[in-house]
Amino acid sequence: MSSSKSKLGKLDFDPPVTVASGTFGTEYFDFFDQRWLGAYVSKTVTFEPKAGNPVPRLYETEAGLLNAIGLQNPGLKGFIGDELPRLRGQLQIPLIVSFSGSTPTEFCQMLECLEKQPGIAGYEVNVSCPNVEKEGLPFGIDPDVVFNLTRELSKLTEKELTVKLSPNVSSIEQVAQAAEAGGATSLALINTLWGMAVDWRTGKSRIGRKVCGYSGIGVKPVALALTYKAAQAVKIPILAMGGIHTWRDALEFFFAGASVVAVGTAMFSNSQAVVELVQGLNGYLEEHNLRLKDIIGKVN
Amino acid sequence: MSVCQKTLPVTGADTPQPGYRVLWIEDHELAARCVPGMFFELKADRRDQANRLYKPISVYQVREGRIAFMVKEVGEGSKALCSLQPGEGVRLIGPLGNAFPLLNVQNILLVSGGVGYPPLAYLKNCLPPSSRVIHLHGGASAKDIFPCDIVCTEDGSAGSKGRVTDLVPSVIAENRIQLVYSCGPQPMLKALTRMVEGIPHFVSLEAYMACGIGVCYGCSVPVGNEFKRVCKDGPVFNAADIAWEKL
């Protein structure tokens, strides 16, 4: 048994590393073997196809990346018809499907539909994308809404149900507890922070949508604090992400309470980030004669 | 064919103009796969660039197993690339993107602006010798000018004064242009598209990219009623298909 083996609710993770939804595609398997990941998280799929946000959608800041993609995706039908069979054919690791609806009913309809599909190991309920007007946001910031939504969704599946939380809330503890009480089997956090950049020469926003999502190296301390706070507030495991580039970053998150970590923006600057992270983590655990579970939540 | 990701030493470097750098790498397998229009994601293999994004850079020249890129100093990433010396490492992902479609016509116009020059210079070398090719290139000033047939600068410091598009109507009329290829800033491409309406016109678009391999949808551009990825569906598009008003 690998010393870095972990568990996220109902899913075994070996290695305890996955990818942040929206930042990853099977294209990266040109660069490394997929078995370096414990699971694959899809891009978020919405009920209807989404064209995405106006351009420009990206800007690299001094410390991290701004994006306003707007969940560009082919919609549930397109996902089930094209993307899912392709993923099933290609993946040898568990598939977690990330999805988002514009109403609680739509979330439930989507889950019912996905439940009929083979080859899905779990779900990430995206209630927290900052880049869409209707999907997600009204859900992710209100603990009562998160509780009711999670309660309805948890009735519909026996699979892993992880709720992806927004950092743009006043109390992560309340939202985390609401998801847990509603039946979430794990939590994923953080989605992107609010961000913005302006060209000081012209006064023009660097991003078409102006306010957008901020990820990457600069958000790590925020993500770490929210991981710690959420881990203190709930008993269900946490899939943590936010600025994780190296195995040292990952260790910080494990100490803060994460059971599994995800790499996102780091893939764009280093397509070997996952491999280097897993190798470094295993090396650290071996060197100190530790198992991962010995350090999860043991920040002092 | 799968995309390659590797770190290679810079085998040659020169500064054709202040603020521009030509970097050569040697890799016979990658060179054999390059066609005009393609690009690579590049970044300097330096510690301070570790967490920075790669920069999409068009192939400029391919010669005997070697590939040249022309980089313009714009931000931190391109600045680091421009400072590379022979022997230093460059990290790359590629070759990426599609290619300029080649049509069997006689009179071809290439229009480039600023750092839109390299992919068209490469294309020009690969067009059939039987074609009559005119390369029109414009820049802000003489330091943005590279070898071509007709030059224009906004400040008049080289060639005629004005924008490159100012010269297009007369060049088209006098040379019975049947096909246009272009690359440069979006306002230039947009204006050019209007001017050459009715003539087949293929544009290579510049875009801010994160992944460069079709994953993140950050570089998408409006094409008809949808968004297409510059990195994977492009960078070369039929100019008539781009929804320029939404750019």
Order of helices and strands of chain A: EEEEEEEHEHEHHEHEEEEEHEHEHHH
Mean pLDDT of chain A: 94
- As for the CATH topology of chain A, it is TIM Barrel
Our estimate of the beta-strand percent of chain A is 15-25%
Radius of gyration of chain A: 18 Å
Low-confidence stretches of chain A: none
What is the averaged pLDDT score of chain B? 95
Number of helices of chain B: 5
Show unreliable segments of chain B: none
SSE class of chain B: alpha/beta
Question: Order of strands across the biggest sheet of chain B?
Answer: 1-7-4-5-6-3-2
| Largest interface (C-beta under 8 Å) | A-B, 32 and 32 residues
Radius of gyration of chain B from the CA trace?
Answer: 17 Å
From the N-terminal CA to the C-terminal CA of chain B, the straight-line distance is: 31 Å
Describe the global form of chain B: globular
Give the quaternary arrangement of the chains.
heterodimer
- Under CATH, the topology of the largest domain in chain B is which? Rossmann fold
Task: Write the CATH architecture name of chain A.
Answer: Alpha-Beta Barrel
Q: Which overall shape of chain A is indicated by the principal axes computed on the Cα atoms?
A: globular
- Give the SSE string of chain B: EEEHEEEHEEHEEEHEHEEEE
Level-1 CATH class name of chain A: Alpha Beta
Commentary on this structure:
The complex is a heterodimer of chains A (300) and B (247). The radius of gyration of chain A is 18 Å and the shape is globular. Chain A has helices at 75-90, 104-115, 137-140, 143-154, 172-182, 220-233, 247-256, 266-269, 273-287, 292-295, and strands at residues 6-8, 11-13, 17-19, 40-41, 45-46, 58-61, 64-67, 95-100, 122-126, 160-164, 186-189, 193-195, 198-199, 204-205, 212-215, 238-240, 260-263. Chain A has one domain (6-53, 69-194, 217-295): TIM Barrel (Alpha-Beta Barrel), CATH 3.20.20. In chain A, the strands form 4 sheets. In chain A, strands 3, 4, 5, 8, 9, 10, 11, 16 and 17 form a 9-stranded parallel β-sheet that branches. Chain A has a 4-stranded antiparallel β-sheet with strand order 6-7-15-12, with no helix packed on it. Chain A has a two-stranded antiparallel ribbon with strand order 1-2. Chain A is α/β, with parallel strands linked by helices and 300 residues long. In chain A, helix 5 (172-182) crosses helix 6 and helix 6 (220-233) runs parallel beside helix 7 (247-256). Helix content of chain A is 34%, strand content 20%. Chain B has 247 residues and is α/β, with parallel strands linked by helices. Chain B has 5 helices and 16 strands. Chain B has a 7-stranded antiparallel β-sheet. Chain B starts with a strand and ends in a 9-residue tail after the last strand. The model of chain B has no long low-confidence stretch (mean pLDDT 95).
